[in-house]
Design a protein that fits this description.
- This protein is of the alpha/beta class.
- The protein is 49% helix and 15% strand.
- The strands form two sheets. Strands 2-3-1-4-8 form a five-stranded parallel sheet, sandwiched between helices. A three-stranded antiparallel sheet has the order 6-5-7.
- A hairpin with a 5-residue loop joins β5 and β6.
- The mean pLDDT is 95.
- The structure holds adenosine-5'-diphosphate (2 copies) and zinc ion (ZN).
């Protein structure tokens, strides 16, 4: 399975990614997680991308595409992958298509999680994430069992620096301008499956699974 998760910031991509990756035994590749890991470890890439993440702006396409291509060339991607947060621009989508077609491959499906703007702001201001493994929580709707401690790995659960209201608004408008056009792009290719992301997490998950299982038949 070669899958892409599409949707505005806060739609629930990271939340759904864990279950999908597990079910289909494919790696969950989040460009946001890769960038944050590099910032945390003060690598050269981390220094290059930090200001973009702080502002909620997109990291330039050439750099982002290079990182994703490297990642997709790793052995664990041989049987497929789940991309979360990539592509985010038409140029990134075209680069992905090109890179796959060089190996006679194509995407199997693009899952578009649809959530309206007002809901996104509440979700992101309450979002908490594990600093070590990236597991996603919500202060009110899905708190970790022990406050501040990740259920999965025991790491610290924090409020992301770019989940402030101003940055969130900026990220949503970046999404509307640069990423939303991907909906039509993948629809034209017959790959798009849209799910209502305002339903409870397990309902969204079931709908994604049944669409993907149908697709696999
Ligand atoms: P994304 O990766 O698309 O930015 P996340 O998966 O991080 O989104 O989810 C954003 C926030 O919304 C998190 O706090 C998460 O717990 C919460 N959330 C995700 N899906 C749902 C849902 N279906 N209903 C309610 N809250 C949700
Ligand atoms: P969210 O799903 O909440 O928007 P992500 O973790 O996917 O957050 O992304 C966080 C930040 O990382 C983005 O605001 C952007 O600065 C950068 N980023 C992630 N993916 C991409 C991408 N495909 N292209 C450019 N920038 C990206
Ligand atoms: Zn963790």
């Amino acid at each position: 399975m070669k899958l892409v998760l599409l949707g505005p910031p806060g739609a629930g991509k990271g939340t759904q990614a864990t279950g999908i990756a597990e079910k289909y035994a494919i790696p969950h590749i989040s460009t946001g997680d890769i960038f944050r890991y590099n910032i945390k470890n003060e690598t050269e890439l981390g220094r290059e991308v930090k200001s973009y993440l702080d502002q909620g702006a997109l990291v330039p396409d050439t750099l982002t595409v290079r990182i994703v291509k490297d990642r997709l060339n790793q052995a664990d991607c041989a049987n497929g992958f789940l991309l979360d947060g990539f592509p985010r621009t038409i140029a990134q989508a075209e680069a992905l298509d090109e890179s796959l077609s060089e190996q006679n491959e194509t995407l199997d499906a693009v899952i578009n999680i649809d959530v309206q703007k007002e809901v996104l702001i509440t979700r992101l201001s309450g979002r908490r994430v594990c600093k070590d493994c990236g597991e996603t929580y919500h202060a009110v709707n899905k708190p970790p069992k022990q406050e501040g401690v990740c259920d999965v790995c025991g790491g610290p659960v924090i409020h992301r620096a770019d989940d402030t209201e101003d940055t969130v608004r900026n990220r949503i408008s970046v999404y509307e301008e640069q990423t939303a056009p991907l909906i039509a792009y993948y629809e034209q290719k017959g790959l798009l499956f849209t799910v209502d992301g305002t339903e409870p997490v397990h309902v969204v998950q079931e709908k994604i699974f049944s669409a993907l299982d149908k697709d696999a038949d």
